[in-house]
From TrEMBL:
Keyword Lyase: no
Family annotation (Pfam families): Peptidase_S49
UniProt family annotation: Belongs to the peptidase S49 family.
Keywords: Hydrolase, Membrane, Protease, Serine protease, Transmembrane, Transmembrane helix
Polar residues composition-biased segments: 39-48
Name the record gives this protein: Signal peptide peptidase SppA
TM spans (from-to): 96-118
GO terms assigned for molecular function: serine-type peptidase activity
Gene3D superfamilies: 2-enoyl-CoA Hydratase, Chain A, domain 1 (3.90.226.10), 6.20.330.10
Amino acid sequence: MSDEQQRGDNGSGSPASDDFPGKESGDRWTDGPEVAPQAKQQPLTGAQSEGVKSGGAKGDDAETLRERQRLAQLEMMDRWVGGVLTEQRRTRRWKLFFRLLLLAIVLTSVTAMLYRVFFAEPTASLPTQRHLALVEVHGVITSDSPANAERIIKGLNRAWSSRSAAAIVLHIDSPGGSPVQSQRIYAEIMRLRDQGDKPIIAVIEDIGASGAYYIASAADSIVASRASLVGSIGVIYAGFGFQEAINQIGVERRVMTAGENKAFLDPFQPLDDDVAQFWQGVLTQTHQQFIDDVKAGRGERLSDSPELFSGLVWSGEQALELGLVDELASLEQVARAQVGEADWENYTPSLDPFERLTRRFTQTAAEVLGLQRTQAPLRFQAQ
C-alpha cells in the first residue's frame, strides 16, 4: 500500500481529512481515535444505579433515569396528597355528623318546649287521687326572680282548678322583697280564699319574713317549724351618703333635673330635714298598708303586743304565741292531716331555660356596662 493510501486510511478505515471539503488537517474535533461500535460499556454511576433500583432499565442513560425518578416522586406525592384529601373528607363528614346531631337536639328541645307551653295540658300527668297542691315561694320576691307574682299566681290558679287537690299549700322559704309583687300575690290569695272551694295553707320553712309573711297572712292558716323565722312586719329603705367623700377626692357631681325634688335620694347630695320627713311619710304609709292587710288576713288571731308590727322577727314558737302562725308542724305532717299520707304535687310553673339564660345574660351585661336595674327603693325584706 502506498504512502498516500496509508495517510488516507490512517490505519482505522476512516476517510482522510482531505476527502472532506472544508475540513483542515489537525482539527481537534475530528482528530484522534474513534470509539469502536462495540466498545466495552462503562460502569454505572451512583445516580444510574439508583435509577436501576427504582425501576429503570439497566441500559438507561442518566437523563432517562432522572426522568423516571421525577415521575416516581410525583407518583409518591400524588399518593400523599390523596391520603391527605381522604383524611380531610373523613374529618368533614364527622364534623357534619356532629353538627346535624347538635341541630337535631336543639330542634327537639325547642319543639318539646313549644309543645309544653302551647299544647300540653298542665295537669295532664297529675294523679287523680287526693293530694296537696304545692306552690313554691322560694327566694327574694321580685319581678325578675323565680319568686315573681306572675309565676306564683299562675301556679295558684292551676292548683285551684285541680279537682283532686285537697288543699293548696304555699311552700314559703323567703326573706321577702318587693311590696308591689307581694301585694299582687296577697290579693290573688284573698280572692281565691273568698271562694271557699278548698283551704289555702301557708307552710313556712326556714324563713317567712316581711313580704313573704305578707303573702302568708292571706292564707286560711299558717304553719311553721319551731325554728322558723317569722314576722319582720315593716318597710325598709337603705342608702348611703357620699357628699363628704366626693368633696375630699375633688370630684364634681353634675345632675340636671326638671323638678326641684327629682333627685332627692341622690347619695351625693345631703338629705335635709324636709326631704327626710317626706320620705319617712312614704315609708309610714306603706307600712300601714302592710299592717292593714295582715290584720285583714289574720283577724282576731293576732295578739295585741305593741311590738307585733315593729319589724322584729320571731322564732316559730314565739310567732305561735303572738298569733302570727296557727300551728307548729312540717309539710309532711300537713299532708298526712289533709290526705292521710305525705303526698303532694308541685303546681309551680317550671322556669323557661331560655328565658332564664337571657335574663342572666341581660343582668350580667347591665353590670358590666354599669347600668342599674330598675327596682323599687322600698322593700318588704328582712335584713
